[in-house]
Every structure is written in structure tokens, then in C-alpha cells.
Amino acid sequence: MEHLTLLIGVVIVTALVFDFTNGFHDTANAMATTISTGALAPKAAVAMSAVLNLVGAFLSVQVAKTISGGIIDEKAGVKPEVIFAALVGAIVWNLVTWLAGLPSSSSHALFGGLIGATLVAVGAHGIHGNAIVMKILIPAVVSPFVAGLAAMLATRVTYRVGRNADPEATSKGYRAGQIASAALVSLAHGTSDAQKTMGVITLALVTGGMVAPHSDPPLWVILAAASAMGLGTYLGGWRIIRTMGKKLTDIQPPQGFAAQTAAATTILASSHLGFALSTTHVVSGAVTGTGLGRQGAVVRWGVVRRMVLSWLITLPAAGLVAGGATFVALQGGWGVLLVGLLGLAVCAGSWLVSMRKPVDHTNVNDIDELVPPRQPAAAPAFDAFAADPALTATIPAPQPNATRKEAAL
What we know:
16 helices
């Protein structure tokens, strides 16, 4: 029992580390457009988001219950070691995508880790396939389109209504609206993503016999998960904020307001229904939709394609990492230790690589590399002399006027 309690303690700490990475990985979801348009200073934006993420974590536990009892059958023999390996797989994928500045889904990294670890440990009978399809996969496909369509329509209506208004006055108003809508997204993010870690910790407590199956997360679990998420949010995932706020499309205040309002509405509705939605998918879809909704805006489809590709491979990639980690962790205490050390090595390596070209609140809006490409240079004029050296011997080069007169004489 002492070993089990120690192992569960390790799982809880690892879950909070994942929650921390989730916080800075997903800060862009709430604050990228607000920062990119200058509605809020970067540090003030992430501080506000951190506080509201913490508050939002206390508003609902429906998503946490989906995680703790909806995806994995806790009675199928899932052990704390398996949950530990699943979390390591999710953390590794989060750090890889953060380093690349890709707004991939932390939620799907967690789901992939849990699914991959469970498949290796107990087999397919430990997975609730219907719950995965209905509450994870279908929302993952539908939500970006719903949020994108809503944001596109809202952007078009916004610009049409304000086409005769003073641009400077309306810009100030929309910046104020952006702050309010960003606060709503942060609150919604807390009701969704922080609960996923609560669900994992509760699942670990259930597997250890410390909490009854299908129980709500204990209060201390809610507080710990909310605090870890808030701290990670405050530190800010500046690389992903740059991608979301500057690389997908050029965002003006009305667009930022439309994107955040559409995203917050979608996330809050899904949290109420218990759907374990990816806020990254929702906000990315909304931001892209605003680019389609504003006449003259440019959507960088190359960035969108890379982002969508990362969405497609996140769940299986995290599952593969978690599956390998599970195989090692189930070998005994040395296996758990080895998996933990490898996870720490990935964390340290990611941080060292990121320090080579740091991105923080001082340069998050610097996008020199995103200056629209220049038009291709005109093809050099055809040089007959260069093309055929023999012509230089038969056609003399032009001579100055004085030389020509001398030659005539």
C-alpha cells in the first residue's frame, strides 16, 4: 500500500506537470488575437487569462467525469503505472509541438496517451469506443467548422454594420470588446481543459482504491489542477501565441472580437454537455474564419495545413509514445523510474533548444519572417553576347562619339 500510495503521488505530480504544459500550450487560445491587435499588453493579457482559467475550473465537473469514467474502463485493470505512462506521452507531444510553435490539441495529446497506454496494458476491452467517437472524435471534426463559420459570419456582419462608422472610434470599441470576449474564452478554457487533468487525477485515485468509481473530483484536486493550469497560462506559450495571432491571418480588432466570441460560445456549450472538446481546434477554426470573413484579409493556408496535419497526428503520436512508455513502466519499479527520467530529459532538452531562439512577451508580435513574399524578380534581359560568345567577334562594341569621328577620318 505504501508503494501504491507513492506511485499515485508520482502520477498526481505528473498530471499537474501536464496541466502546467497545457496551460502555456493553450494560452494562445484565449489571448493570441488580443495580444496581436494590441488590445492588451502581453503580460497583462496572460495574467488575466491565468486568473480566469483558475475561476473557470470551479464552474463545472462534467468534462472531468467524462475523462475519469467515460473513455477508459477503470474496472478493466488499469493501474497507476499506466496512467503515469499516458501522461508522459501527452507531455512529450505537448513539448514537441510547443517547440515547433504549432497550436495542436493538448486535449487530444492526453486522450491519445490514455488510449495508447490502455491498449498496451489491458487491450481494446479497456476502451469505451462509443464515448471516444461521440465525445471526442466527432466534436474534434465538427467544432472547428462550427466556430469558423460562426466567426466568418460575425466578421462579415460586423464590417457591414460598421462600414460608415469612424474607424478609430470603432477600433477602440472593438478592443474593449476583445478584452471582454478574451476573458470569456479564458473562463471557458478553465471549464474545459483544467477539468481534463482533474479527471486523470480522479482516475488515478479510483485505480488506487482511494475514491469510489464515478465520483466527482475532490475539492483539493480541483484546486491543484486549477492552480497548475493558471501558472502555466501566466508564463505564456509565446511561440504558439505568435502562430495563432500573426501567422494564420492578419487580424484587426473586429475580427478578434468575432473570433473570441464564437469560440467562447462553442466551448461553453460543449462543456455543459460534457464533450471533451479541444479549445485549440475551436479557436484556430474561429481565427481562420475571421480571415475568410474580412474582405482583403489573407489566410496563410500553408500554416493552416501544417496545423491541421498536427491535429491529425496528435492523438496517434501521443498514443504511440504512451504505449511504449507503458510497456517499459509495467516492467517494474525500474521501468517507472526510467520512463520518468526519459520524460525529464525531453523536458530539459526542449527548454534548451527553445533558448537558442527565445520567444517571449517582448518579441511575440515580431514577424519579420512573415513579410509577404516579394514578386518574383523579372527575368534578366536576354544577352545575345553572353549567349553566343562568337557574336562578340563579329559585332564591335559601341564606341564614344569622338572615337567614331576619328574612325571616319
